[in-house]
Protein backbone atom coordinates (compact mmCIF):
# COMPACT_ATOMS: atom_id res chain seq x y z
CA UNK A 1 0.00 0.00 0.00
CA UNK A 2 1.11 3.59 -0.58
CA UNK A 3 1.81 5.58 2.54
CA UNK A 4 -0.58 8.55 2.83
CA UNK A 5 1.22 11.74 1.79
CA UNK A 6 -1.21 14.54 2.51
CA UNK A 7 -4.71 14.94 1.11
CA UNK A 8 -5.35 13.60 -2.39
CA UNK A 9 -8.85 15.09 -2.57
CA UNK A 10 -9.65 18.69 -1.67
CA UNK A 11 -13.04 20.34 -1.24
CA UNK A 12 -14.44 23.84 -1.05
CA UNK A 13 -17.96 25.27 -1.07
CA UNK A 14 -19.07 28.62 -2.46
CA UNK A 15 -22.62 29.84 -3.02
CA UNK A 16 -24.06 26.34 -2.68
CA UNK A 17 -21.56 24.73 -5.06
CA UNK A 18 -19.17 22.18 -3.59
CA UNK A 19 -16.05 21.68 -5.67
CA UNK A 20 -14.32 18.33 -5.18
CA UNK A 21 -10.82 18.35 -6.63
CA UNK A 22 -8.77 15.24 -7.32
CA UNK A 23 -5.35 16.46 -6.19
CA UNK A 24 -2.85 13.65 -6.70
CA UNK A 25 -0.98 14.79 -9.81
CA UNK A 26 2.14 12.77 -8.97
CA UNK A 27 0.30 9.60 -10.07
CA UNK A 28 -2.13 11.29 -12.48
CA UNK A 29 -4.96 11.21 -9.93
CA UNK A 30 -4.98 7.41 -10.00
CA UNK A 31 -7.63 5.63 -7.93
CA UNK A 32 -5.41 4.74 -5.00
CA UNK A 33 -6.99 3.49 -1.78
CA UNK A 34 -6.34 6.87 -0.19
CA UNK A 35 -7.89 8.88 -3.02
CA UNK A 36 -10.97 6.63 -3.14
CA UNK A 37 -11.49 6.89 0.63
CA UNK A 38 -11.15 10.67 0.53
CA UNK A 39 -13.50 10.94 -2.43
CA UNK A 40 -16.11 8.92 -0.55
CA UNK A 41 -15.73 11.29 2.41
CA UNK A 42 -16.15 14.31 0.14
CA UNK A 43 -19.32 12.88 -1.39
CA UNK A 44 -20.72 12.26 2.08
CA UNK A 45 -19.94 15.87 3.03
CA UNK A 46 -21.83 16.99 -0.07
CA UNK A 47 -24.98 15.79 1.65
CA UNK A 48 -24.95 19.02 3.67
CA UNK A 49 -28.21 20.88 3.09
CA UNK A 50 -26.35 24.04 2.02
CA UNK A 51 -24.87 22.26 -0.99
CA UNK A 52 -27.00 22.56 -4.10
CA UNK A 53 -24.64 20.99 -6.66
CA UNK A 54 -21.21 19.35 -6.87
CA UNK A 55 -18.39 19.96 -9.33
CA UNK A 56 -15.84 17.15 -9.68
CA UNK A 57 -12.56 18.39 -11.15
CA UNK A 58 -8.80 17.87 -10.98
CA UNK A 59 -5.32 19.34 -10.70
CA UNK A 60 -2.63 18.54 -13.23
CA UNK A 61 -2.95 17.47 -16.84
CA UNK A 62 -4.90 14.28 -16.08
CA UNK A 63 -8.41 14.12 -14.68
CA UNK A 64 -7.96 10.48 -13.62
CA UNK A 65 -5.72 7.72 -14.97
CA UNK A 66 -7.79 4.89 -13.52
CA UNK A 67 -6.53 2.19 -11.18
CA UNK A 68 -3.29 2.75 -9.31
CA UNK A 69 -1.35 -0.01 -11.06
CA UNK A 70 1.51 0.27 -8.57
CA UNK A 71 -0.87 -0.64 -5.75
CA UNK A 72 -2.60 -3.29 -7.83
CA UNK A 73 0.61 -5.04 -8.86
CA UNK A 74 2.19 -4.93 -5.40
CA UNK A 75 -0.90 -5.92 -3.39
CA UNK A 76 -0.33 -8.81 -0.95
CA UNK A 77 -2.10 -12.12 -1.52
CA UNK A 78 -4.60 -11.33 1.23
CA UNK A 79 -5.69 -8.17 -0.64
CA UNK A 80 -7.87 -9.72 -3.37
CA UNK A 81 -8.58 -8.02 -6.66
CA UNK A 82 -12.28 -8.57 -5.98
CA UNK A 83 -12.12 -6.14 -3.05
CA UNK A 84 -10.70 -3.47 -5.37
CA UNK A 85 -13.44 -4.13 -7.91
CA UNK A 86 -16.12 -3.78 -5.23
CA UNK A 87 -14.42 -0.60 -4.02
CA UNK A 88 -14.75 0.97 -7.47
CA UNK A 89 -18.37 -0.15 -7.89
CA UNK A 90 -19.21 1.44 -4.54
CA UNK A 91 -17.53 4.69 -5.58
CA UNK A 92 -19.38 4.89 -8.90
CA UNK A 93 -22.65 4.12 -7.16
CA UNK A 94 -22.04 6.84 -4.57
CA UNK A 95 -21.73 9.44 -7.33
CA UNK A 96 -24.82 8.24 -9.16
CA UNK A 97 -26.88 7.95 -5.96
CA UNK A 98 -25.90 11.34 -4.53
CA UNK A 99 -29.23 13.20 -4.43
CA UNK A 100 -27.67 16.30 -5.95
CA UNK A 101 -26.39 17.05 -9.46
CA UNK A 102 -22.74 16.15 -10.01
CA UNK A 103 -20.91 17.99 -12.79
CA UNK A 104 -17.56 16.84 -14.13
CA UNK A 105 -15.19 19.66 -15.08
CA UNK A 106 -12.48 18.09 -17.21
CA UNK A 107 -9.49 19.75 -18.84
CA UNK A 108 -7.04 16.89 -19.17
CA UNK A 109 -6.64 13.22 -19.93
CA UNK A 110 -9.17 10.58 -18.86
CA UNK A 111 -8.12 6.95 -18.90
CA UNK A 112 -9.56 3.58 -17.85
CA UNK A 113 -11.23 3.85 -14.44
CA UNK A 114 -11.40 7.61 -14.81
CA UNK A 115 -13.91 7.01 -17.59
CA UNK A 116 -16.16 5.36 -15.03
CA UNK A 117 -16.14 8.55 -12.94
CA UNK A 118 -17.12 10.56 -16.01
CA UNK A 119 -19.95 8.17 -16.79
CA UNK A 120 -21.24 8.41 -13.23
CA UNK A 121 -21.58 12.20 -13.35
CA UNK A 122 -24.84 13.84 -14.41
CA UNK A 123 -23.38 16.60 -16.58
CA UNK A 124 -19.91 16.62 -18.13
CA UNK A 125 -18.23 19.81 -19.35
CA UNK A 126 -14.84 19.35 -20.97
CA UNK A 127 -12.13 21.54 -22.44
CA UNK A 128 -10.32 20.99 -25.71
CA UNK A 129 -7.22 19.71 -23.87
CA UNK A 130 -9.11 16.62 -22.74
CA UNK A 131 -8.58 13.18 -24.28
CA UNK A 132 -10.17 9.83 -23.50
CA UNK A 133 -9.27 6.14 -23.68
CA UNK A 134 -10.48 2.81 -22.36
CA UNK A 135 -6.98 1.32 -22.17
CA UNK A 136 -7.81 -1.91 -20.35
CA UNK A 137 -7.67 -4.16 -23.42
CA UNK A 138 -4.05 -3.11 -23.94
CA UNK A 139 -3.16 -4.33 -20.45
CA UNK A 140 -4.74 -7.76 -20.66
CA UNK A 141 -7.83 -6.51 -18.86
CA UNK A 142 -11.33 -5.35 -19.79
CA UNK A 143 -13.23 -2.21 -18.79
CA UNK A 144 -15.33 -4.41 -16.53
CA UNK A 145 -16.53 -2.30 -13.59
CA UNK A 146 -16.57 1.01 -15.41
CA UNK A 147 -18.77 -0.47 -18.12
CA UNK A 148 -21.57 -0.08 -15.57
CA UNK A 149 -21.58 3.71 -16.00
CA UNK A 150 -19.93 4.14 -19.42
CA UNK A 151 -22.00 1.80 -21.61
CA UNK A 152 -25.39 3.34 -20.66
CA UNK A 153 -24.03 6.76 -21.70
CA UNK A 154 -22.48 6.15 -25.10
CA UNK A 155 -23.37 5.05 -28.61
CA UNK A 156 -23.18 1.26 -29.02
CA UNK A 157 -21.07 1.26 -32.19
CA UNK A 158 -18.64 3.72 -30.65
CA UNK A 159 -18.47 1.55 -27.54
CA UNK A 160 -17.36 -1.41 -29.65
CA UNK A 161 -14.57 0.60 -31.23
CA UNK A 162 -13.17 2.23 -28.10
CA UNK A 163 -13.61 -0.71 -25.68
CA UNK A 164 -11.93 -3.13 -28.09
CA UNK A 165 -9.08 -1.01 -29.46
CA UNK A 166 -8.10 0.93 -26.35
CA UNK A 167 -7.28 3.86 -28.64
CA UNK A 168 -7.39 7.51 -27.63
CA UNK A 169 -10.11 9.88 -28.83
CA UNK A 170 -10.63 13.62 -28.51
CA UNK A 171 -13.28 15.73 -26.83
CA UNK A 172 -15.26 16.21 -30.06
CA UNK A 173 -15.69 12.44 -30.33
CA UNK A 174 -16.47 12.21 -26.62
CA UNK A 175 -19.31 14.68 -27.11
CA UNK A 176 -20.52 12.98 -30.30
CA UNK A 177 -20.90 9.57 -28.62
CA UNK A 178 -22.58 10.96 -25.49
CA UNK A 179 -19.81 10.71 -22.91
CA UNK A 180 -19.41 14.50 -22.68
CA UNK A 181 -22.37 16.86 -22.39
CA UNK A 182 -20.64 19.90 -23.83
CA UNK A 183 -17.17 20.52 -25.23
CA UNK A 184 -15.74 24.04 -24.95
CA UNK A 185 -12.35 25.68 -25.23
CA UNK A 186 -10.21 25.44 -22.12
CA UNK A 187 -10.45 29.21 -21.78
CA UNK A 188 -14.25 29.01 -21.65
CA UNK A 189 -14.50 25.99 -19.34
CA UNK A 190 -14.93 27.79 -16.02
CA UNK A 191 -17.52 30.11 -17.56
CA UNK A 192 -19.45 27.11 -18.88
CA UNK A 193 -19.38 25.43 -15.47
CA UNK A 194 -20.57 28.62 -13.78
CA UNK A 195 -23.46 28.91 -16.24
CA UNK A 196 -24.72 25.44 -15.34
CA UNK A 197 -24.25 25.80 -11.57
CA UNK A 198 -26.06 29.16 -11.73
CA UNK A 199 -28.95 27.44 -13.52
CA UNK A 200 -29.04 24.72 -10.87
CA UNK A 201 -29.04 27.36 -8.16
CA UNK A 202 -32.41 28.57 -9.45
CA UNK A 203 -33.94 25.14 -8.82
CA UNK A 204 -35.37 23.90 -5.53
CA UNK A 205 -33.46 21.24 -3.58
CA UNK A 206 -36.52 18.99 -3.78
CA UNK A 207 -36.87 19.56 -7.51
CA UNK A 208 -33.24 18.68 -8.11
CA UNK A 209 -33.37 15.63 -5.85
CA UNK A 210 -36.51 14.20 -7.41
CA UNK A 211 -35.45 15.00 -10.97
CA UNK A 212 -32.14 13.25 -10.44
CA UNK A 213 -33.98 10.24 -8.98
CA UNK A 214 -35.91 9.95 -12.26
CA UNK A 215 -32.75 10.22 -14.33
CA UNK A 216 -30.69 7.72 -12.34
CA UNK A 217 -33.32 5.09 -11.52
CA UNK A 218 -32.43 2.77 -14.41
CA UNK A 219 -28.69 3.33 -13.99
CA UNK A 220 -28.80 2.44 -10.29
CA UNK A 221 -30.84 -0.67 -11.09
CA UNK A 222 -28.26 -1.59 -13.72
CA UNK A 223 -25.41 -1.06 -11.23
CA UNK A 224 -27.01 -3.23 -8.59
CA UNK A 225 -28.02 -5.96 -11.01
CA UNK A 226 -24.66 -6.39 -12.73
CA UNK A 227 -22.09 -5.43 -10.08
CA UNK A 228 -21.19 -9.01 -9.12
CA UNK A 229 -20.80 -10.11 -12.74
CA UNK A 230 -18.37 -7.34 -13.69
CA UNK A 231 -16.52 -7.45 -10.36
CA UNK A 232 -15.96 -11.19 -10.81
CA UNK A 233 -14.63 -10.59 -14.31
CA UNK A 234 -12.37 -7.78 -13.13
CA UNK A 235 -10.86 -9.79 -10.27
CA UNK A 236 -10.29 -12.81 -12.53
CA UNK A 237 -8.49 -10.71 -15.13
CA UNK A 238 -6.32 -8.82 -12.64
CA UNK A 239 -5.09 -12.16 -11.32
CA UNK A 240 -4.23 -13.49 -14.80
CA UNK A 241 -0.75 -13.92 -16.25
CA UNK A 242 -1.58 -11.76 -19.27
CA UNK A 243 -2.65 -8.87 -17.06
CA UNK A 244 0.43 -9.19 -14.85
CA UNK A 245 2.59 -8.94 -17.96
CA UNK A 246 0.50 -6.05 -19.28
CA UNK A 247 0.80 -4.03 -16.07
CA UNK A 248 4.51 -4.78 -15.76
CA UNK A 249 5.10 -3.72 -19.35
CA UNK A 250 3.16 -0.50 -18.74
CA UNK A 251 5.31 0.34 -15.72
CA UNK A 252 8.49 -0.53 -17.64
CA UNK A 253 7.31 1.49 -20.67
CA UNK A 254 7.63 -1.37 -23.13
CA UNK A 255 5.31 -3.54 -25.23
CA UNK A 256 3.88 -6.61 -23.52
CA UNK A 257 5.27 -9.94 -24.71
CA UNK A 258 1.89 -10.83 -26.21
CA UNK A 259 1.60 -7.67 -28.36
CA UNK A 260 1.94 -8.30 -32.10
CA UNK A 261 3.19 -4.79 -32.92
Question: Mean pLDDT, nearest integer?
Answer: 94
Query: What distance separates the N and C termini?
Result: 33 Å
Q: How many domains is the backbone divided into?
A: 1
> How much helicity do the residues have?
40-55%
Q: Which of globular, elongated, flat, extended, rod-shaped describes the shape?
A: globular
Structural class: alpha/beta
Quaternary status: single chain
Helical segment count: 10
**Cα-atom Rg, whole angstroms?**
18 Å
| CATH-defined fold name | 2-enoyl-CoA Hydratase, Chain A, domain 1
Going by CATH, the homologous superfamily would be 2-enoyl-CoA Hydratase, Chain A, domain 1
Q: What are the low-pLDDT stretches, counting only 5+ consecutive residues below 50?
A: none
Q: Count of DSSP E strands?
A: 10
Strand arrangement, major sheet: 1-2-3-5-7-10
- Give the H and E element order: EEHEEHHEEHEEHHEHEHHH
CATH architecture assignment name: Alpha-Beta Complex
**Name of the CATH first level:** Alpha Beta
Q: What proportion strand?
A: 15-25%
Largest β sheet strand count, sense and barrel closure: 6 strands, mixed
List keywords for this structure.
261 residues, alpha/beta, 2-enoyl-CoA Hydratase, Chain A, domain 1, 6-stranded mixed β-sheet, 4-stranded mixed β-sheet, globular
Amino acid sequence: MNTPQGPRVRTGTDAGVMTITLDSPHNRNALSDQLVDELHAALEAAGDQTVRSVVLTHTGSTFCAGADLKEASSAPVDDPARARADQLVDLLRAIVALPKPVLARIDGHVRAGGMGLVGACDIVLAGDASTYALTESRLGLAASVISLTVLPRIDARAASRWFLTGSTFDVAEAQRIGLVTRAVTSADLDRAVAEVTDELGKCSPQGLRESKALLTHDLLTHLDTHRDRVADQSSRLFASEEAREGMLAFREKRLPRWATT
